[in-house]
Amino acid sequence: MILLVFTATLLILGSTYYQYRTESEQYNTYRQDRKETQLTKQINYLVNKHDLAFNYDNWDNYKIDFEEITKIHNVEYSIFTPDGKPLYYSYLPLEIISNNYSLDKDFSEMLISLDGGKITRENTTDVGKFQSSYTVLKDNFDNKYAILFFPYFQDVSFAESELNVFLTTLYQIYFIMLVVAIVLAYFISRYVTRSIETIRLKINQTGLLKKNEKILL
Fold first, then answer.
1. What secondary structure does DSSP assign to 44-58, as a single string?
2. Could you tell me if residue 139 is inside a domain?
3. pTM attached to this predicted model
């Protein structure tokens, strides 16, 4: 019985932890996609409004407008030409900075050639771990005019704290259950089993033609 409760406890805790982690990751991915969609719409609107799709020399004239997008959506992002040259940036990983603020040419060509036009990566930098995406931007005529780099900095401290509190509560509950199971197992082995053994012995000694003793438990 003790082994059964202990095994069930481990299985429930393990499955709960896995489910919580999975749902948390799915929720973060959903929020990242939603933020990126809003950002992409805002950038495309600005590009189409000022006819910037392939007029790369004019992008510097609207740098303030792109900075406003950063403030409005409270995000960081960078934009590159299809061959990886920087058009606008508010945050860049060290690997891009060290490459003259440009994307690797082979990577840019590979991204542009993808059907989905998007790659998601896990990054580890001086600011911590975060997810980032590289997405191909298209104009109203479905022409690929730029590459969007979107780093999604999500504070997971609250989610981690909630998970720790939840698991601690489960540990306490199942520890109590384990103690109760031990007490019950001791009671069963100490009294119930002994009573059954006493009855068995008395039955073996019982005869039909003689006076029998009363069975006392």
1. HHHHHHTT-SS-GGG
2. yes
3. 0.65
